[in-house]
Amino acid sequence: MRALLLQSEEDDGEGNDTMKKTAALILIICMALALYGAGFRWLAVTSGSMEPAFGPGAAILIRPCDVSRLKEGDIVTCSLGSGDRKVTHRLIRIEEDTGRIVTRGDANKQEDAPADPDTVLGKVCLAVPKAGYAVLFMESMYGKITFCGSCLLLLLFSTVLSARNPVSDRTHPAHKAHACREADSGPVSGNCKSE
What we know:
The chain is α+β, with helices and mostly antiparallel strands and about 200 residues long. It folds into 2 domains: about 1-35 and about 140-180; about 40-130, Umud Fragment, subunit A (Ribbon), CATH 2.10.109.10. It contains 5 helices and 6 strands; from the N terminus they run αββββββαααα.
């Protein structure tokens, strides 16, 4: 009987741990979706034009910004042409007469052509070296399938584990009191009080 109670307590720990990990993953996904909904975007850096600030393979997080609040030295991302191509460079100046912005990559000698303010997608608020490869993968069809499949498998696994080992039943005080009365001799792992 004692071995059965100890096994039950070990199972509770595994179930709780899995549920905590699942809850943490769900929280992270919700936070990422909230950031995405607020206009934040992860982009992958594909050139060395901003070295040494960040280089190829880095991931940058951009947030929406009011162009009128930008200042010299801010790093901004602008869309070029149809919007599929983006450039992330340091703001050199805003032309007073036209309001157009002029940028230049830290590693470049020449300034970029002036861009309209409505092409600014956002201001860089975070750069993570080498994480851009993950961003590129997640943007691919394989990355999306892998992410969705992993989430579904984790959800399925946690559901099966919690159904096999219901945490609420084993942690309920009545269950513990019953288990303590059933124990052959004395406390089990310090969870039962001696009478």
